[in-house]
Amino acid sequence: MNGFGLRGFRSRRALAVLIGAIALPVGLWGCDGENTVELAPPEVLAPHIYAEVIDLRGRFREIYCQIRDDHGKNLPDDRPCPDALWKLGDEPKSHGGDVAMGASDGRTLVVVIPGIFGECIIKLVSPFSYALKHLEKEHGYRTGVIPVSGLGSSEHNAIQIDKALKKMDIGPQDTVILIGYSKGIADILEALINHSAVARKVTAVVSIAGTVGGSPLADGTPDVLSDLLSEISDQSCGAPEGDPGGVESLKRSTRLKWLSENRLPASVRYFSLAAFAKREQISKILHDSYDQLSWLDPRNDSQVLFSDAIIPGSTLLGYANADHWAIALPFARKGRAYEVLISRNAFPREVLLEAVVRFVEESLRNGPSSGN
């Protein structure tokens, strides 16, 4: 695998360490039981309306189910709608009618920004890789991935996003949808604030299992991360020179402070899709991190609390019934070698991503009154 496959590691333990850290470092407290409380802005727990989040879960469910009924049943990892999306008791009803499922006119560009360590494994697995191919080949969308630094801070990666977008062929009438998976959303939000060209080019931003509010797992960097860094130090996935801030960017204290100090550009539309699952639906290697987060809230995807994945002022699409890897990373389609540790990876990502894009396009056509 071009120097980064199974033979690129000095031990099976090293591989497990890497897999266990793809999305976020695993560990809330150190082995000595101590925890570190970082300074952060005052927080409140409040219903979504106080964060100006518009709840359109009912409409997103309609769109998802229509796509699944129309052609999704023949796609890999098919699930009935109730098994793919949680339906919480307060989900608003929707009677939005049929979703437009025609071919794209070629003016919509869908770009995914991976999470932390994404660069380290991009030759093995990339977020929504098959789903992006589905959008492109079956429906005519333009798609892409911006491979930001796997260990870079959000500030560093925001520069990479800015440079990548400047190189893309984007016309004045094009619709650009940036999808931030895991830490990718933090990188995108940084880019919108720090690089005016990004805000001018981007039409919509979607958080999918994103670390909008950070993750408690990052607040206590475990020793296992140091082991990982020593294992991959001779690979092409080290921290950028002078910028080892990838984990720091994921701390809740960092992200909440950032949110308190920055107001997102009003010219961009924002959408959020969170995830959580029951323990038995989460891959074995993620059980420890799920258990640690469950002390705070069992509604987590093993890496992110479901409430931390929502952009303030965004439109809420829903909650996927998946763990943090299953929602985006298609390990299960790479062969049986990963099934022992990554045991709950199957998820209908093609249907999910198409539903997200169709929903965003519909919202943009309908105007701001339809959401965010």
Write a structural description.
α11 links the parallel β6 and β7 (315-321). The longest helix has 18 residues, at 349-366. The protein has a seven-stranded parallel beta sheet. It is of the alpha/beta class. It contains twelve helices and seven strands. Helix content is 32%, strand content 10%.
Rg, Å, rounded:
19 Å
Main pleated sheet:
7 strands, parallel
Order of helices and strands: HEHHEHHEHEHHEHHEHEH
Distance between the termini: 43 Å
Keywords for this structure?
372 residues, alpha/beta, seven-stranded parallel sheet, globular
Short description:
The chain contains 12 helices and 7 strands. With 372 residues, the protein is an alpha/beta fold.
Helix-strand layout with pairing:
Blueprint: H1 12-19, E1 54-55, H2 57-70, H3 81-84, E2 108-113, H4 118-121, H5 129-139, E3 142-145, H6 154-167, E4 175-181, H7 183-194, H8 196-201, E5 204-208, H9 223-232, H10 252-261, E6 269-276, H11 287-294, E7 315-321, H12 349-366
Parallel strand pairs: 1-7, 2-3, 2-4, 4-5, 5-6, 6-7
